[in-house]
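question for whoever is on the cluster today: can someone run the full assembly for these? two chains, 525 residues total. i dont have access anymore since they changed the login thing
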Amino acid sequence: MSDASTTKSGGIPNPLAWIGRGTLALFAEIGRLSLFSGRTALSALIPPWNLTQLWKQIIAIGFYSLPVVGLSAVFIGAALALNIYTGGNRFGAEQFVPNIVVLGITRELGATITGLMLAGRVTAGIAAEIGAMKVTEQIDALKTLSANPFRYLYAPRFLAAALTLPILVLIADIIGVMGGWLVSVYALDFDSTTYLRNTIDFLTMEDVVVGLIKAVIFGMVIALMGCYQGSKSSAGATGVGRAATLSMVGAAVLVLAANYILSTFFVQIGI
Amino acid sequence: MTQPILELKGVQKGFGSNHVLRGVDIDVAPGRSLVVLGGSGSGKSVMLKNALGLMTPDAGKILFDGKDVTKDQGKAREAMRSRVGMLFQSGALFDSLTVWENVAFRLLNADGMKRTDAKEQAVETLKKVRLGASVADLRPAEISGGMQKRVALARAIITEPDLIFFDEPTTGLDPITADAINDLIIEQVKALGAAAVTITHDMASARKVADEIAMLFEGKIIWRGPASEIDRSGNDHVDQFVHGRADGPIQPAL
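^ ran it for u. tokens below:
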């Protein structure tokens, strides 16, 4: 399609019109997402809560993510220990493996890997479920039955993700450190007792808390992206599939961006 | 004259350059059954969603029991919806809930009824649509399409509404099951004394359930009359639709 606003006189596409349209669309999308996030957060914070739905989502988001989080954490911890050992070996700093593993896992990798794994498993699942509900008119049916989708569908998922992510991250931290310990003791000939003592001595409460605060934010991002993309899913299987893909990609990028912003903030305030 | 339970006055709704409703004027009196006919893409579902408050009209008014509800939100909208039942085209049953939880959804969530009482009422309502208690604990995916429509009908009537909307209630059903659903609709609507608005393009269904029939074409109601006069409407559009002819003023939606 070409019109005066999008083409120059010779029919060549006008790049300024493209940029303008893209910018407007971006701001409109940010606005819609912000409004949706605000309504979801308000519905999550203000009672009454739908405890039945909340419990179902805690099981679906938290409990059923345990295997994938545990497996990811053990391999990340193990690979981290190997790489730190190899790098540290170049200047005789192998003994710092337990310290750097525990620091890297608790402050950074435990939360980030859990966030990314759940962006795949949970966000896409939420988007597909809500998208399917939308295209089969179940969300309209909720409204006609005087149930607010923000309270019945989105708030329980938002709360469940924000509550369970810190628990999952804590578990990922423990399993990730265990992965590093396993490789260090059985492949790199570290003394088990010394490794564990160094880990415990070096670990501070702040390191753990930093990861847990990140986890709460990641949980919110993961649930919001799934609910938002699902709620605006268009008709048909293609629309639902697209919503699942967009939600997963969006959540993964936002988790990484939020991780950087939060890390910067924690460094700035000295923890 | 009796005050209509539902009135649409000059309702317009568009999506971008697509003007779906161009000034719909229609009303339905308490206890009457109105069927709105229209081809695919004629705006029947959009009209119904506007009437239910699932969409907001660009212009015009919607009055429920004499009160303007066009822009109602929150409690005011809930008050209106508590008096309205809706049977969706696809049934729109919640996959994650059992049949009885679907039927009793409003009782459990909006009215805060105890589960034991709600289940008892749901099973009673299922009986009204000829479904036994044995289906109550099944999931919607475990029952047939015809049974799903009955469950959806039970969900629409459980709170004894004053007005029930039926969106293509017989679509996707074989003629015998469709006729059984029509019979149930007539029986239950009469038993409740409720008004009914049905949108359909199934002429057999329209003839059976309607007291009055209206025809929606190009976003406006172009004919309305008693169901008994549908074959003598004197309107070319209605005649073409009633007889299912490809030739005529209505172009097939290809």
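summary bc i know u wont read the tokens: Chain A has nine helices and no strands. Chain A has one domain: 65-268.
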